[in-house]
Amino acid sequence: MLRCRLIPSAVVTLMLLQGVAMVLLFGWYGHLMPSTSTAPQGKVHVLLLSSWRSGSSFLGQVFSQHPSVFYLMEPGWHVWTTLRQPGARALRMALRDLMRSIFQCDLSVLEAYTPDQRNVSNLFMWSNSRALCSPPACPLTPRHSFSNETECRRRCDARGLQKAEEACHSYSHVVLKEVRFFELESLYPLLHDPTIDLRIIHLIRDPRAVAKSREQAIRALLSDNALVLEKGGQKVTDSDLRVLQEVCRSHVRIYETAMLKPPDFLRGRYKMVRYEDMVRDPLEEIENMYKFVDLEMSPQLQDWIYKVTHGKGKGSRKEAFKITSRNAEDVSQAWRTTLSHNTVKRIQQVCKGAMSLLGYQLVDSEKEQKRLDLDLVVSRKRYQFSWLPAITTESPML
Ligand SMILES: *[C@@H]1O[C@H](CO)[C@@H](O)[C@H](O)[C@H]1NC(C)=O
Ligand SMILES: *[C@@H]1O[C@H](CO)[C@@H](O)[C@H](O)[C@H]1NC(C)=O
Fold it and tell me: Measured from the CB, is residue 375 less than 6 Å from ligand 1?
């Protein structure tokens, strides 16, 4: 009985306190925020959902370099490398809550995962974020310019995370890239949260190209592999393709949840993008993605996109997380000449379901594999991703 009487008064006190806090907080923002900033109510929150080695660094840059975007790359890295639980399943809620706080520009959540005397440079891959190389986080890069990661790393950084928070508040879009989600259900609370306007862009890629790319980053992936397979703390090479299989399964799971039986609150908030479509027609695909999240395309961005997708250089990069300028379409076909046909057959076995669902054709022989004129990506015209059942008259797998 005593408890019942106490609770209402405690609630009233809490509400009063919260009211005072809100008034103080908004007054404080009023002083802090430049007049050009967008009201938090109009803010859009974007999750770039991908998996390792699927071209998501490039996609991240497409958003990071946009002048309206505050971008962070894989904040979940902090959770996975600090907690090292048995596996992904146990960590996904911590990951989800970390993302919720960051979407709300509350970076204090990172205190649990960074050293006591933290700097902006303690954030994973921080110099990939143009916003952290621009005012108010750093004077180096004007907000409408493109940032240079090397220069940023040399000349930015700041003590504490206050400047990064301030920067986050001053943009209309907060974009996070994450490779550590294997289903959508754990994200549902974010979709219900009235303070978050979440849009999910799900990037997928031909698993045969992913496998080739993973071969070049074996060491960088050892710890993450272990967590995917619920063996946290160990180091696991994916020689038997179980991680790749798990990734393929997650594509199917996410696709089915979002496209075949979407709950109402997911409608209009999910978009699937195939990497191959993006490299074939970067401008159109990127323009569609910008539209989906209410970002404007500009001639400067169009130039930049053209340059980074048509650069020179081979795809033989040692580091797992760098993006370089190279011919994106060549790179996406490289597996066909470099992977052995046996390897390709094994990948097709473990990823068969995902490949047929997502429009990647299997090869039946080494000859087919090496015939580069044979297009293995089912064209989007015949393979539309939409909310309605496909209204195709021909078989999409032809
Ligand atoms: C970035 O800056 C470095 C060092 O100043 C320079 O060598 C490099 O070419 C620049 N990169 C780009 C893409 O402009
Ligand atoms: C943090 O940043 C300050 C100045 O911005 C710098 O002097 C200091 O060395 C940095 N600390 C670390 C650990 O990087």
Answer: no
Which segments of the chain have a pLDDT < 50?
1-2, 4, 6, 23-39, 313-323, 325, 386-398
Which residues does 263 contact at the CB level (< 8 Å), separation at least 6? Answer: 188
CA of 158, closest atom in ligand 2: 5
Q: How far apart are CA 74 and CA 288, in angstroms?
A: 23
145 lines ligand 1 (CB under 6 A): no
Q: Which ligand neighbours the alpha carbon of 152 most closely? A: 1
Instruction: Name the residue among 112, 121, 123, 107 with its Cα closest to residue 73.
Output: 123
Distance 155 CA to ligand 1 centre (A): 13
Ligand 1 centre distance from Cα of residue 222 (Å): 30
With beta carbons less than 8 A apart as the criterion, state whether 272 and 204 touch.
Answer: yes
Residues 340, 75 contacting (CB under 8 angstroms)? no
Domains and CATH numbers, the chain: 40-297 (3.40.50)
pTM of the model: 0.82
Residue 83 dihedral angles phi and psi, to the nearest 5°? -85, -35
Q: What is the pLDDT of residues 174-230, one digit of tens each?
A: 999 999 888 999 999 999 999 999 999 999 999 999 998 888 888 888 888 888 888
Q: Any idea which ligand is nearest the CA of 122?
A: 2
